[in-house]
Design brief:
The protein has 272 residues and is of the alpha+beta class. It is built from five helices and 15 strands. It is globular.
Amino acid sequence: MNSSEGQEVYCFQGDSLVIPADTPDSRLNEGVSEKAAREELEIDEIFEIPAVDMPGNIRGVNVRENAALPASWKAVPMRQAVNLLTYGMTVDGRGPVGRLLRSFHISQWRKESAYCGSCGSRNSDSPSEPARLCPVCGRLEFPRISPAVITIIINDRDEALLAHNRKFAAGVYSLIAGFNEAGENLEATVAREIREEVGLEVKDIRYLASQPWPFPNSLMLGFTARHAGGEIRCDQVEIEDAQWFSRDGLPRLPGNGSVSRFLINSWREGKL
């Protein structure tokens, strides 16, 4: 791919964003100088992808996985980086946070798609589109996107159901979420995940917003739903606790960089 050393790039090492150590939290999504990255970091590859929110391209850097970073650089876990940023996307997934997430998604996918999934040969890049092309069998592979639903459930008392997942930090409560299954529409996924994880039935399922969420390769589709029946019964596999909360009695919530927080804030502000 063509080099443009004056351009800004997003640098990644494993699951972390690599940035100069003095970068303030508010500028984590702005990229860094490609020239500085080339001179100071141990780079595996530089990649370029079309932007989806404006003309032009986004450039990314994959830093060698086990390489020690210079003292003037630091690695910030991407989940932490997103939480430090505000929810900076419109409902179609555009905006500065969206560009960072797109770049990270492609960074992860490029490492996972180095070899053809059909014949095992080393993949090449397609010359015409952001895809991998096997030079042996001709298999074309595009970045994987896994649709997942996330839902804010509201009862007749205008309370929202928030749940603590085993994977969350202590005390953090969020919304019920889960991946779409083959042969299932999104509304059915919403109802099934809620039934499986907390034992509730819902109605009036309505789509509200989406967010690219490359942890690992998801597209989060945000819904609202009304409680239609049943008592809370946590599955104790993923969900350890779930409760109805009022606006003035909320627990610790997910960070502002997530669509879950966007949905919770919309309810808290009386917009749902």
